[in-house]
Specification:
With 74 residues, the protein is mainly alpha-helical. The protein has one domain. The chain contains 2 helices and no strands.
């Protein structure tokens, strides 16, 4: 039971770190292309691309964090 709790805590931490880190990376990448979704009040194609970068970063960040934090753990 303690192993299950430890694994669940590691998964939760990996998800949280991955989502936040990935979102920040996606936002940064968008800003490098001149798209700042967070600071804009417009809704146009450019802003939707910025949002897609942030959401995509969340997914990629979660996957990478889980692979790194849960590597070699039962």
């Amino acid at each position: 039971m303690a192993q299950d709790f430890e694994r669940a805590m590691r998964e939760g931490l990996a998800d949280a770190v991955g989502f936040v880190g990935g979102a920040l990376a996606g936002w940064w990448l968008g800003r490098q292309f001149g798209i700042d979704f967070i600071a804009s009040t417009d809704w146009n194609l450019q802003q939707l691309i910025g949002l897609a970068l942030i959401v995509g970063g969340c997914g990629v960040g979660r996957t990478v964090a889980r692979r790194l934090m849960l590597k070699d753990k039962p």
